[in-house]
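Quick one, tokens below:
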């Protein structure tokens, strides 16, 4: 069937043409060939050894070897970070063999682990000596204080009969100890040590419970180390020696790491490439002679010349007597989806892929998302002052994209930087819709000429109560007339405008989605989808909500006072009745009856014919296969019967009918719910404008009215943080998510399957970080 109309092809509208190719590679040049293909990054290899475990594959030992080298490299990177060093800019690359690198990495790891072990022992010894030193110091302070206190008390005592037993040098409880059994004598002692301040209270409670309160507990804060009072020897001398040894060990370790840092990136890249090469080689299978490796891969048609050139260079460099055989295979398997994107279109394509990767050759919604997504966001975020703020921030990201592109940013900053061009268009469209709404931080300006309305009195005091009067016929040249802001009619007028505008934009985008389903159907040669999906859907949506959009535009153009709610309700309840003053054009009643009949016919048109035609086609296919060439044996006839039985099982009329019924119900109900869902454009726009007005009037203007510089400063700070935090961050995120919902659900479900899989070529440029 010839299409009604067509659209030109572009690289982003439909995915690139793909071919399944077969590579027959001599064993001696396999490593070099895969290396060249990895540098090129245009082949997605298929795993031909799915029946084998990773340990049963040909190059399993090489992969294990690379994994062990990656572990050693990761250890070196950790040591480098622990030492506070960074990888130095490497000098010109020095060729190094993988075997030599493996030996060198082993030696470096052993040396660094030995240095780390010795360093840890020295640090542990240093810590223990420091603790002993502090315990001696604090214990000495405690006992010295106790002795001094007791001596003072003894001097002040007036008891003249003090004996030797009562002196400070006599032992405690001596008399009681001599009169009791030696096994029952009381032994007093003490324990001194260090404990963290956070655990001191818990430790005290544990001791109190364990001894049932029979203890004396004393704690003192730590102080600087002092001389041992018992021996007079400075314990710190050994601590100083150990600290010197620690410093020397750290210097030796840093020297080794500094020498390694110049080659660490080069070594890491080499090992990662080798690991990727052997992992890819494990996906290939041997031919019957065991002299060649056979591989299958998906390749873009436009890249075949580059791939063949890389294969020739690989065969030449490896001095192989036989070149790699490159041939295209015919396959019924669905190819992967591949789009050529750049830094501008990549973020928009990621928005689509987050919902689902386009099926091979399916129309890509990303092309339309570039325009419709930032525009719908701007409808909800219309303020050219806020748009300028986002634009300045985005231009700063774009200006510094080379610097930020090579840095590791945080999660939120990385996401923001990745979507910088989405934010750029969002800001530009927000400035445009802000001019239409005539809002600059909720303040209107006469940017495009004089107003068509004026106040009734010079003071304009009755603008919010009585209203305005129109003094000229020419309207405001562009956007909303600034005098509407603050007037009595502002909210009803803007509500009516934004609500009707939301319905028109929603109907246009949904109609676009249905039209795109036609192009998908014609491309995949599905005439049933054209006649029994596209046609009834476009008629149903157009006869109801398309008609409503036309009435809205006619009401705007003619200035009519018709009640569109009344028109649409009585179009269903009483289609033959006279609509009276709500008539917008001659013959409107007859047009409405015709549109109502079209909408009623579209539902069974969408539901019944397609499953019936599918059933008829299936029966004709079975009947046609019932006649054929006579077979030479009963086995051939049995094969035919089995084929017929298999085909009969593939089609079930009941399943096809139920599927079509679900699809019909979903579309009919979705046409209503999706149209209502676009009213979020009106709601979010109103909320944004009202929040902006509240912050401006109740914070900034209120603080200005006090004529106090301190209050004005505080009010400005509150206004600034409220604008940034609520309007420029939270409102931006809210409008972004609502625009995302409108694209994923209301727009894409009209034509988009999204059940494809991404083209993921074997490429060294996409190797993951070693961490």
């Amino acid at each position: 069937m010839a299409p009604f109309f067509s659209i030109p092809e572009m690289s982003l509208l439909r995915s690139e043409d793909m071919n399944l190719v077969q590579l027959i590679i001599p064993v001696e040049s396999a490593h070099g060939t895969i290396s060249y293909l990895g540098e090129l990054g245009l082949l997605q290899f298929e795993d031909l050894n799915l029946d084998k475990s990773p340990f049963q594959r040909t190059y399993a030992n090489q992969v294990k070897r690379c994994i062990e080298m990656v572990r050693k490299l990761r250890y070196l990177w950790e040591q480098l970070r622990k030492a506070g060093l960074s990888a130095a800019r490497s000098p010109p690359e020095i060729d190094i063999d993988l075997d030599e690198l493996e030996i060198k990495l082993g030696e470096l790891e052993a040396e660094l682990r030995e240095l780390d072990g010795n360093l840890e022992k020295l640090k542990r010894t240093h810590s223990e000596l420091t603790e002993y030193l502090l315990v001696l110091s604090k214990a000495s302070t405690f006992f010295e204080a106790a002795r001094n206190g007791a001596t003072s008390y003894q001097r002040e005592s007036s008891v003249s009969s003090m004996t030797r037993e009562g002196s400070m040098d006599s032992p405690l409880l001596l008399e009681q100890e001599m009169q009791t059994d030696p096994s029952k004598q009381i032994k007093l002692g003490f324990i001194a040590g260090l404990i963290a301040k956070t655990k001191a209270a818990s430790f005290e409670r544990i001791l109190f419970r364990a001894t049932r309160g029979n203890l004396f507990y004393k704690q003192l804060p730590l102080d600087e180390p002092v001389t041992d009072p018992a021996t007079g020897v400075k314990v710190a001398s050994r601590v100083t020696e150990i600290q010197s040894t620690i410093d020397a060990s750290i210097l030796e370790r840093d020297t080794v790491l500094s020498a390694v840092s110049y080659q660490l990136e080069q070594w890491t890249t080499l090992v990662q490439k080798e690991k990727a090469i052997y992992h890819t080689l494990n996906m290939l299978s041997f031919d019957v002679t065991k002299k060649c490796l056979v591989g299958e891969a998906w390749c873009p048609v436009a890249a075949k010349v580059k791939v063949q050139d890389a294969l020739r260079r690989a065969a030449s460099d490896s001095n192989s007597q036989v070149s790699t055989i490159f041939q295209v295979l015919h396959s019924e398997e669905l190819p992967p989806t591949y789009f050529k994107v750049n830094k501008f279109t990549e973020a928009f394509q990621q928005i689509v892929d987050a919902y689902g990767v386009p099926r091979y050759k399916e129309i890509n919604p990303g092309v339309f998302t570039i325009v419709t997504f930032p525009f719908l966001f701007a409808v909800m975020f219309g303020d050219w002052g806020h748009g300028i703020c986002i634009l300045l921030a985005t231009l700063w990201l774009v200006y510094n994209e080379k610097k930020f592109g090579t840095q590791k940013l945080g999660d939120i900053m990385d996401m923001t930087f990745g979507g910088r061009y989405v934010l750029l268009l969002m800001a530009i469209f927000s400035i445009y819709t802000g001019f239409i709404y005539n809002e600059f931080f909720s303040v209107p300006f006469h940017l495009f000429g004089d107003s068509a309305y004026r106040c009734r009195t010079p003071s304009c005091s009755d603008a919010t109560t009585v209203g305005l009067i129109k003094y000229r016929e020419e309207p405001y040249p562009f956007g909303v007339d600034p005098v509407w802001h603050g007037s009595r009619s502002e909210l009803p007028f803007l509500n009516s405008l934004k609500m009707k505008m939301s319905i028109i934009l929603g109907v246009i985008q949904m109609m676009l989605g249905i039209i795109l389903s036609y192009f998908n159907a014609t491309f995949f040669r599905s005439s049933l989808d054209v006649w029994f999906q596209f046609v009834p859907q476009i008629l149903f949506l157009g006869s109801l909500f398309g008609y409503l959009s036309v009435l809205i535009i006619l009401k705007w153009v003619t200035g009519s006072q018709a009640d569109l709610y009344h028109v649409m309700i009585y179009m269903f309840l009483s289609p033959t009745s006279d609509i009276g003053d709500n008539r917008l054009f001659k013959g409107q009643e007859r047009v409405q009856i015709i549109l109502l009949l079209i909408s009623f016919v579209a539902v069974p048109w969408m539901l019944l014919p397609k499953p019936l035609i599918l059933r008829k086609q299936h029966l004709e296919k079975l009947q046609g296969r019932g006649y054929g060439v006579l077979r030479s044996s009963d086995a051939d006839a049995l094969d035919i019967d089995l084929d017929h039985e298999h085909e009969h099982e593939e089609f079930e009329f009941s399943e096809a009918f139920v599927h079509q019924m679900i699809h019909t119900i979903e579309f009919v109900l979705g046409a209503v719910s999706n149209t209502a869902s676009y009213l979020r454009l009106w709601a979010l726009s109103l909320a944004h404008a009202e929040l902006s007005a509240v912050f401006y009037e109740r914070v900034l203007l209120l603080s200005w009215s006090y004529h106090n510089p301190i209050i004005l400063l505080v009010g400005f700070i509150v206004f600034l943080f409220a604008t940034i935090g609520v309007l420029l961050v939270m409102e931006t995120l809210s409008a972004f998510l609502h625009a995302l919902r409108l694209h994923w659900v209301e727009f894409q479900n009209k034509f988009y399957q999204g059940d494809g899989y991404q083209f993921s070529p074997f490429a060294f440029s996409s190797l993951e970080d070693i961490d």
